[in-house]
Each structure stands twice: as structure tokens, then as C-alpha cells.
Amino acid sequence: MADSLGRLYEHVVEARNADPQVSRTARLMRAGREKMAKKLAEEAIEVVIDAMNGEREAVVRESADLLYNLVVLWVEAGVKPEQVWSEMARRERLFGLAEKLPKKPMQSNGRRKVVMLDARRRAPKRR
């Protein structure tokens, strides 16, 4: 799998400078980080919905879309697949293969810190 994602990463790096009228990847990259993040979130939600509905084949297809959009966001953020693999290896050494890194402790008031996207901060509230 790492090889497939590595090849996809290289393709996205190459495609970001392609003609956006021809390349969906170039078009997405030019739309900006917020649009890329939105597409990633949409695909994640689709995977969840399909999984909840027991649609195995749809989960497979939407998962591929999710990974594509994740790689696009990695390229935009300057994150290389090897960095993610290194972090996964570090976590495996610390917590085991199937474990997730524990969440940071909550703030002293018992709440988690919420971070808003820039566009949400600037957008006027609708009534």
C-alpha cells in the first residue's frame, strides 16, 4: 500500500502544475487548501455513511477517493508519505500496531480547544 500511495503522491506533485482545464488534480490544487480540506472531509463522511449502510463496495470506492484527497492535502501541506510512515512506525514502537496515540489532556476547564477555519471566522453568521 505504501508503494501505491507513494506513486500517487508523485503523480499529484507532477499534476499540480498541469493545466487545470485538463487535470482535476491541478484544478483542486489551485482551488486552495480550504477546498482541499473540504473535499477530504466530504470523502470521509461518504465512507462513514456507506459503512453504516453496509455498502462494502461503496466503502472501497470512497476509501480510494479519501486517500486521493488526503494525498492532495499532503502535497499542499508539504508532508511526504515517508514522514507519515515514520510517525506510524514511532507509534507502533510506543503503543502497538493497532493502537492510536492518546489524545492530549483536555484544557484545565475540561473542554477541548476548537480551531476554526479562516473562512468560518470571516463569514458573517446567517440568520
Structure description:
With 127 residues, this protein is mainly alpha-helical. It has one domain: Helix Hairpins (Orthogonal Bundle), CATH 1.10.287. The protein is 66% helix and 0% strand. It has six helices and no strands. α1 packs across α4 and α3 runs antiparallel to α4. The radius of gyration is 17 Å and the shape is globular. The protein starts with a helix and ends in a 5-residue tail after the last helix. The model has no long low-confidence stretch (mean pLDDT 85).
Please give a quick description of this structure:
With 127 residues, the protein is mainly alpha-helical. The chain has six helices and no strands. The chain has one domain: Helix Hairpins.
Could you name the CATH class?
Mainly Alpha
Radius of gyration: 17 Å
Provide the structure class: mainly alpha
The assigned CATH architecture is Orthogonal Bundle
How does the major sheet shape up?
none
Strand content is: under 5%
- Any low-confidence stretches, pLDDT <50, length ≥5? none
Query: Can you count the beta strands?
Result: 0
What is the CATH fold-level name? Answer: Helix Hairpins
Helix content: 55-70%
Q: Please give the domain count.
A: 1
Mean pLDDT: 85
List key phrases describing it.
127 residues; mainly alpha; Helix Hairpins; 0% strand; globular
Give the helix/strand layout.
Layout: H1 2-15, H2 24-31, H3 33-52, H4 56-77, H5 81-95, H6 118-122
Helix pairs in contact: 1-4, 3-4
